[in-house]
Design goal:
Layout: E1 21-26, E2 32-34, E3 38-52, E4 61-76, H1 84-92, E5 99-106, E6 112-122, E7 138-145, E8 150-153
Antiparallel strand pairs: 1-2, 1-5, 3-4, 4-7, 5-6, 6-7, 6-8
């Protein structure tokens, strides 16, 4: 074979699904707490660019000027002692709380990815109570991450990358 199809079939046993992810929080109490009540979470970079078009050019260029990192998740309400009480107590004292989070993924082969998000402050709306009769009570959280994420663990390919002819 000429190598064109070498990378066309991947080992699907290494694919990750939502069941392989976990979210941890560190609050004032200190240790990482597994947020087993979280059913969805999302961590995102958002990049900001300035447009620049020099004289005589049809092409507009993107000049990177900054980025932000956000974390959002939805939890089924089971407990309040981990985050809500801390949020309310801090707000009553006149300051905003800050949390640290770790997002983790683990494959069957034992490889893991773990990313740390420090200095996370509430951003936008946070559901304290969102009630619909006949439905589970859920709470949505949104955070702005005020530090660059760092990777504690990362997935590594064992096959190695080969260029396609």
């Amino acid at each position: 074979m000429n190598g064109f199809y070498d990378q066309s079939v991947q080992d699907v046993r290494k694919a990750i699904s939502g069941k392989d992810g976990r979210l941890f929080v560190t609050n004032r109490a200190g240790p990482n707490i597994f947020l087993a009540e979280v059913d969805t979470f999302q961590m995102q970079f958002s990049f900001k660019n300035a447009d620049w078009q020099p004289v005589g050019s049809l092409l507009q260029y993107a000049i990177p000027t900054g980025c932000s990192v956000t974390l959002s998740f939805t939890e089924t309400v089971i407990r309040d002692d981990v985050m809500v009480i801390e949020l309310i107590e801090d707000m009553q004292k006149g300051y905003f709380p800050s949390f640290a989070f770790q997002g983790a993924l683990r494959r069957r082969d034992g490889q893991a990815e773990r990313i740390v998000f420090d200095n996370c402050v509430p951003d936008g709306s946070v559901d304290l109570m969102n009630i619909t009769p006949g439905e589970l009570v859920k709470r949505s959280w949104n955070f702005r991450v005020n530090s660059m994420p760092s990777a504690l663990e990362k997935f590594v390919t064992t096959e190695g990358w080969k260029p396609v002819n």
